Amino acid sequence: MTTDFLVIGAGIAGLSFALKAAKHGSVTVLAKGKLMESNTAWAQGGIAAVLPEEEREAGDTVEDHVRDTLDAGAGLCNEAAVRLIVEGADETIDDLIAHGVHFDRSGDHFQLGKEGGHSHRRILHSRDTTGREIARALIGAARNTPNITLLEDRVAIELITSSKLGSLTDDRVLGAYVLDAESGEVEVFRSDRVILATGGCGKVYLYTTNPDSATGDGVALAWRAGAAIANMEFIQFHPTCFYNPGATGPEARSFLVSEAVRGEGGILVNAKGEEFTKKIDPRGSLAPRDIVARAIDREIKRTGAPCVYLDVTHKPPGFMRERFPFIYETLLKFGLDCEKQRIPVVPAAHYQCGGVSTDVDGKTTLKGLFAIGEVACTGLHGANRLASNSLLEGNVMARRALDGMIRSYGPGKADSTPPPIPEWEHGDVAEPDELVVIYHNWDEIRRLMWDYVSIVRTDNRLRRAAARLRNLKKEVREFYWGHRVNVDILELRNLVAVASLVVECAIRRKESRGLHFTLDHPTADQASCRDTVIRKF
Ligand code: SIN
């Protein structure tokens, strides 16, 4: 199949891009699972935006949003990217509304929520299922756009580049080999403009707020194709994942309790009811996430308790039911009435602040390859993402990437004389009969990342993780080359690649900054204040 724009990923970034690009040519969007299974669809909190003066909180300015983002990013943001993205918020909200997104209002005005690190109320939301509302509207709009082909259950195996086909000059992307998870067949998608919008890599960790699809596919694909990767040491841990030790299903284990709950007065306390975060930062429960997650980690280790608590029992009866109906109902399903009982919570892996290195137009270091949304490292987040900046980034960067592409390549069709691309060869391989090998390695990666490479790190633990991952990579490589590809093998191969990149970046950073905290180098070092950029070749 040949397409003008090949979009891998169907969250806010991928769909926003597709809806714009469809005016310029044919667009194929590949969703890894079903369309509503993206990370976007799981987002609860909302989208940060400083609106025109009559709509914003009194005193708030775009400059304040820029400053809050830079503060959270702990010195590592690219200020130009921060400004472009924050300034694009107004257009983003108009764009989403034009596609049918409904944001909550009180009378004539938007309701604005607050989250950690924001100096003002500026989070637009749709109750506590903002992501689901955005996904619903964008999927609907894309379905009604004739130039867009939406394909579900498609897992990208490998990007096709001219160098992989033997060219020694002018390396560029030519398309992708993609597994149809339903039929088991591998298809070739030809396109000289490939847009990675695959989301993050939360599943690299044992505990995560992310859906099962978040296996770092985009970073792994780009890395294997030779694109530069940056800042993977900065994995954000969300402070308040529901602690539910008896849980069995993924929903029960990964259930996020939105930071917006703290924005509306929820307080983090220990088992004795003490507000321990206040001892660490005067902003207490609403300090930026890196600070709050570390405070919880410290409290759990200090007291030996398995969790801390988010307390909203002081809010008026009915408040949680009305403002956070999804959280209220879900917790009730798990046997907890949060209007009467404190919510047990623990930190869990939530967001990948680094990723495929791009410029402010989503361009990667590989010609024809673009990355937008969580998979990309634009410089917006620096060493720690400000809450609710990511849906904004996904939409703004979709616009910028398309404009940049049109500027670089013109509005025309994809290359009319592409080099011939061979069909995928399964080769003389076996059907994967020992699934236990896959599951064992999968569990081992996630457990070792949690134990050795999570909120608090040390040189020694990172070295152990690197050594173990080297062996796992070798085993996974042998398994991959010896067996017919399926989704489990592909995800495992990506997980081990991305875990190794996180560890490699963490080893290189000899300081503590933002989300990367190591006991061996516990302070920030101005001389180390730069991006960690790595390339395969
Ligand atoms: C949340 O609702 O707490 C998540 C918001 C975000 O990660 O930006």
Describe how the helices and strands are arranged.
Layout: E1 5-8, H1 12-21, E2 27-30, H2 39-42, E3 47-48, H3 62-72, H4 79-87, H5 89-98, E4 105-106, E5 109-110, E6 112-113, E7 123-124, H6 130-143, E8 148-151, E9 154-161, E10 173-180, E11 186-190, E12 194-196, H7 217-225, E13 229-230, E14 235-242, H8 250-253, H9 259-263, E15 267-269, H10 289-303, E16 308-311, H11 319-323, H12 325-333, E17 343-352, E18 355-357, E19 369-371, E20 376-377, H13 390-409, H14 435-452, H15 459-482, H16 487-508, E21 533-534
Parallel strand pairs: 1-2, 1-12, 2-8, 12-19, 18-20
Antiparallel strand pairs: 3-7, 4-5, 6-7, 9-10, 10-11, 13-18, 13-21, 14-17, 15-16, 16-17
Helix pairs in contact: 1-6, 1-13, 3-4, 7-16, 14-15, 14-16, 15-16
Bound molecules: succinic acid (SIN).
The site of succinic acid has 9 residues, from α9.
Portion in helices: 25-40%
The quaternary organization reads as: single chain
User: So, the CATH homologous superfamily of one domain?
Assistant: Succinate dehydrogenase/fumarate reductase flavoprotein, catalytic domain
Hetero groups? succinic acid
Structural class: alpha/beta
Which CATH architecture of one domain is right?
A: Alpha-Beta Complex
User: In whole angstroms, how far apart are the ends?
Assistant: 29 Å
Poorly predicted regions are none
Major sheet: size, sense and barrel closure? 5 strands, parallel
Report strand order across the widest sheet: 8-2-1-12-19
CATH class of one domain: Alpha Beta
Note the beta-strand portion.
Answer: 15-25%
The gyration radius over C-alpha positions equals: 22 Å
